[in-house]
């Protein structure tokens, strides 16, 4: 590169805002147990103004960003770039089969290289709105505390009884195990880690060794938010009721595919259908994402008429077998 070009590049960089990201490194991965379980990357971002902060991004967010940048700046003729085009770094491709944690771990070096090259592109690319929003620390990012750091705190409880969780969000405990506490979820449930597994468990099954700090006991720790979905498996012999706790906000609209997969896992039955009750008490079959949207809208319209815990979804799922067309009566 010629000296005049170097001077022009340095001048362009000097004029960039102080909050422009100039480097990003993946510090850890973190499992999220939602309606569908996934891993996200904990990324430390450094800005031109020398500030540092953490953001949390899934692979699909990398993928979406890359598609946007390709549409805006890629050139069909790489040998002859235009004034508003550049050569983007390659993004590691999607992987559809395999252990999710191993896949996330294996992607760390490649994604670190991708971000390094991305933030080394011309300054006019660094000003792109999509790129800046990807590396911007949202309010949700700033409120979250990395789980790896939280595990260092010596706040502990000891299991007094065996406890088998009903969902992936709940820990399995054996009598005598020591659980390292992370935070209080609500008046009855705590979040902790044992045997390299993290999840929630009922407080009545454990004995205090060292309590949580006062702020965490009041639920102000900035950790994951657990929301609970009331589910009913309707059979001719009776009703099996479950509360499925997931690391999702109450406002989320899960996909039909994710809900079906989770209910099959919860009730250990493959041949099932999803339903919800309308205001008249009739079961309405759910067949796609549009039906899920209708169920959620109906649940929100009725939420003022039904008293529920603050962390419970305003809609409920009624699960039947796919061949069962009869209607069962339940008490919600």
TrEMBL record:
Record localization: Cytoplasm, Cytosol; Endosome membrane
Identification of the protein by name: Neutrophil cytosol factor 4
Topology of the protein relative to the lipid bilayer: Peripheral membrane protein
Single annotated GO MF: superoxide-generating NADPH oxidase activator activity
One GO BP annotation of this record: superoxide anion generation
Organism: Astatotilapia calliptera
Keywords tagged on the record: Cytoplasm, Endosome, Lipid-binding, Membrane, Phosphoprotein, SH3 domain
Domain SH3 per the UniProt entry, residue ranges: 152-211
GO CC annotation: cytosol; endosome membrane; NADPH oxidase complex
Residues of the PB1 domain: 226-322
Domain PX: residue ranges: 19-142
PROSITE patterns according to UniProt: PB1, PX, SH3
Function in brief: Subunit of the phagocyte NADPH oxidase complex that mediates the transfer of electrons from cytosolic NADPH to O2 to produce the superoxide anion (O2(-)). In the activated complex, electrons are first transferred from NADPH to flavin adenine dinucleotide (FAD) and subsequently transferred via two heme molecules to molecular oxygen, producing superoxide through an outer-sphere reaction.
Coiled-coil blocks: none
Gene designation: NCF4
Phylogenetic classification of the source organism: Eukaryota, Metazoa, Chordata, Craniata, Vertebrata
One Pfam family hit: SH3_1
Family annotation (InterPro entries): NADPH_Oxidase/PX-Domain, p40phox, PB1-like, PB1_dom, PX_dom, PX_dom_sf, PX_p40phox, SH3-like_dom_sf
């Amino acid at each position: 590169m010629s000296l005049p070009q170097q001077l022009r590049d340095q001048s362009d960089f000097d004029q960039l805002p102080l909050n422009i990201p100039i480097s990003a490194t993946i510090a850890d991965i973190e499992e999220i147990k939602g309606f569908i379980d996934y891993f996200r990357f904990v990324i430390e971002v450094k800005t031109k103004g020398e500030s540092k902060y953490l953001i949390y991004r899934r692979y699909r967010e990398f993928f979406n960003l890359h598609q946007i940048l390709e549409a805006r700046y890629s050139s069909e003729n790489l040998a002859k770039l235009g004034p508003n085009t550049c050569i983007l770094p390659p993004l590691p491709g999607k992987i559809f089969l395999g252990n999710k944690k191993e896949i996330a771990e294996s992607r760390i070096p490649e994604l670190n290289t991708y971000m390094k090259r991305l933030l080394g592109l011309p300054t006019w690319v660094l000003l792109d709105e999509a790129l800046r929003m990807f590396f911007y620390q949202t309010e949700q990012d700033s409120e979250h505390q990395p789980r790896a750091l939280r595990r260092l705190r010596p706040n502990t409880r000891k299991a007094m009884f065996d406890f088998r969780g009903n969902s992936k969000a709940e820990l399995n405990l054996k009598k005598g195990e020591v659980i390292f506490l992370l935070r209080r979820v609500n008046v009855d449930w705590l979040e902790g880690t044992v045997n390299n597994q993290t999840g929630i468990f009922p407080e009545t099954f454990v004995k205090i060794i060292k309590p949580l700090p006062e702020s965490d006991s009041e639920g102000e720790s900035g950790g994951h938010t657990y929301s609970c979905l009331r589910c009913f498996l309707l059979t001719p012999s009776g009703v099996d009721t479950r509360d499925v706790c997931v690391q999702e906000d109450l406002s989320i609209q899960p996909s039909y595919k994710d809900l079906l997969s989770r209910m099959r896992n919860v009730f250990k039955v493959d041949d099932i259908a999803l339903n919800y009750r309308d205001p008249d008490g009739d079961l309405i079959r759910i067949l796609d994402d549009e039906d899920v949207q209708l169920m959620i809208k109906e649940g929100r319209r009725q939420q003022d008429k039904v008293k529920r815990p603050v962390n419970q979804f305003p809609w409920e799922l009624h699960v039947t077998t796919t061949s069962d067309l009869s209607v069962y009566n339940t008490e919600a």
